[in-house]
Specification:
single chain; 39 residues; mainly alpha; 2 helices
Length: 39
């Protein structure tokens, strides 16, 4: 049962990372955000 829990946690973390990256990407695509990020 502990193993199941651990693998679920990892999967959730990976998914959250993907979501976070896509949010960052969508922010970067918005006009005016380039100035804020400095890129």
């Amino acid at each position: 049962k502990a193993e199941n829990y651990a693998s679920t946690q990892v999967r959730t973390f990976e998914q959250s990372k993907e979501d976070f990256l896509s949010i960052l990407k969508s922010f970067r695509l918005q006009p005016g955000m380039d100035k804020l990020t400095g890129k």
